[in-house]
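Researcher: Re-running this chain for the archive, since the previous output was lost when a drive failed. Same request as before.
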Amino acid sequence: MYRNLSKCALIFLFLALSGLIFLLRNIHTVENWNCHTISALYQLQNRIHSSFLVENLPTFYHNHTFCAHLGQEPSPEDVLEERYLLDSIAWPLPPPHSAPTALRHTSDPVHSLFAILPTNGVSEWHVGDQLEALVQMHDFHGRPKRYGGDFILARLHSPELGAGVAGKVVDHRNGFYSALFPLLWVGSAQVEITLVHSSEAVAVLRRLREERPDRVYFKSLFRLGFLSETTVCNMCLPPDQQPLCNYTDLHTGEPWYCYKPKMLSCDTRINHAKGGYLKHLITNKEALLFQSGVNIKVHIRASGPDKINVLPQKEIVEESSTMKPEPNNMVPPSGYYYGDSWRPLTGVTMRQFNRSSSVSQCLKNKVIHMYGDSTVRQWFEYLIASVPELKEFNLHSPKNVGPFMAVDITHNILLKYRCHGPPIRFSTVMSSELRYISNELDGLSGGPNTVVVLSIWAHFSTFPVEVYIRRLRHIRRALVRLTDRAPGTLIVIRSANLQALDQEVSLYNSDWYSLQLDKVLKAMFKGLNVLVVDAWQMSLAHHLPHALHPPPVIVKNMIDILLSYICPENKTSQK
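Model: Regenerated structure tokens:
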């Protein structure tokens, strides 16, 4: 009898295990089944799995071509353009024998110096002249550097006048740098030279960008009924370690992948979110190259005076054939501050929109589409806060994620914001809300009452530049299609800006990464019917500390430029 009971127990246990295996293998058919017990156990296992996502991340291929050249096959013209763009941002690296090197042999801002050079041998400067400061870099022993590649910023400013302009830095590749400034105002002007990163630190940043595009990783939640699982996602994942879910965009060919869940199918993906930042990316010796207050954004002192007094512009007199002025080959800046107000030098006349009524009148009968990262979302938030008539419509969107929409019924204004497609490091975005900018642009009617504002840079700093070029190329083609079918559409692009840096931020979002992306952005849209708000120079020229999201006074100037583009002075005066 006991033997029969044992046989029955074994048979029952076998049937139970078979049923459990059947359920797990056919999970798509059990959505409405009562599987609370199974899902509870599975979700517990999944929570444990998710908590170890960082530790269980696969080893990434240390080959930049794997990530850089995913997506659609580029045309010969695309390949040629990419080569030109990469050549245009090529950065001098330290000599091979100097890397890896000890900290004492790297650039030290404390021992380095700069000096203001006289103009034509005379220490007298007038508005319209060019000021040059010569920078000589030294190492921590005080010895002169013999090669270039340091990332240096230069600014000419006057605290008394609320004035400031970005300088151009020329690397002579021998330890010397020239900082060139146009003289644009009468009065005091002080030179400020800042070492952002040593050439040795830039070499580390460049290696990370090419070899570790996985250092910011993403994740997605997959769910069916009571079952859920979270897996790692990125633009490029090794295809031979786990099965992949391919979410490549059908229209643009922009690649995106997630590791396939163990129990669920790829079409059960619910959302997208930032997973986190990989640690321990650099050696202890390399970490010394990224020390706040030591060699990250530290001012370089002057060997003599760091200030000059700028005199009014000289009267233009006819030059004799033997007295020709020296040519000034410096590319003029996009603008400068005076009285804390930005003064563009690129054709648009800056208008001040100090009252909400003037903003409303400018945007009257307009539809403004804002696409991109949080730096353009900041513009959306600024307009909402400064124009009481713009009422935000509750779309029940996640905070800081969107999409967002605001309406001014009285003035017939519609203002919209939507984040760009992956990679986007926002907290959680529903999969259905992930949209690529180029696809969104193809869905716009456009026209004289349509304004499109774009900002796309901050979330691409961890990827090879080829990835950014590909994304901008898709956006550019969509903009050309938009302006062809609706010629009156106004397109405004917000460029990258400087931000506060420490060691951690430098490895993921260094200003060096942003500078390279900024140069590519401006080059790719040059010559098109596209207007640019030069956030890079606006953040560099201002006296306030750098911030990923600039302070209100800078944002106000940016918005004034945007509105000056939308409502130029000449059109206003004709009404």
